[in-house]
Design a protein that fits this description.
single chain; mainly alpha
């Protein structure tokens, strides 16, 4: 019987996850720089008096949801991604329903869910090899 996580697999998994995070952050940076800031457009409309109290309230609530989505997504990358990832996705959806884009929170939420699934699968495979499980026909 082998030891838990024998071989090069843990190092390869860490490298792949790190590259995934770097790629996601680069994509988010490119997307954010490709379009004008939504906040700048909002402030311009506010300055010109084109916004009602209801639209200002909706926008500020959306910004709050966007912030919670981003924070939950970042926390989910490091701790309990299976919990914080869906929270980030839901908060991003609420922000977008109020007209505020929350792409970063949604992407980080999905990445944290994916990392959590990979982590659970890795631990399960490590434990099964440690406990001596052999698939049928092996």
């Amino acid at each position: 019987m082998g030891r838990l996580f024998d071989g090069p697999w843990p190092v390869l998994l860490i490298i792949i996850l790190t590259l995934g995070v770097v790629a996601a952050l680069l994509i988010l940076a490119v997307v954010a720089s490709a379009r004008p800031s939504q906040d700048a457009a909002y402030l311009a409309r506010l300055r010109d008096g084109q916004l009602t109290v209801e639209s200002q309230t909706d926008y500020l609530q959306g910004v709050g949801h966007r912030t919670r989505a981003l924070v939950s997504g970042v926390i989910g990358l490091f701790v309990l991604g299976i919990v914080f990832g869906p929270v980030a996705i839901v908060q991003a959806g609420r922000a977008e329903a109020l007209g505020v884009t929350a792409t970063a929170g949604k992407v980080l939420g999905w990445i944290s869910v994916g990392f959590s699934i990979l982590w659970v699968l890795g631990v399960g495979m490590g434990l099964s090899s440690r406990l001596g499980y052999q698939p049928p026909g092996y």
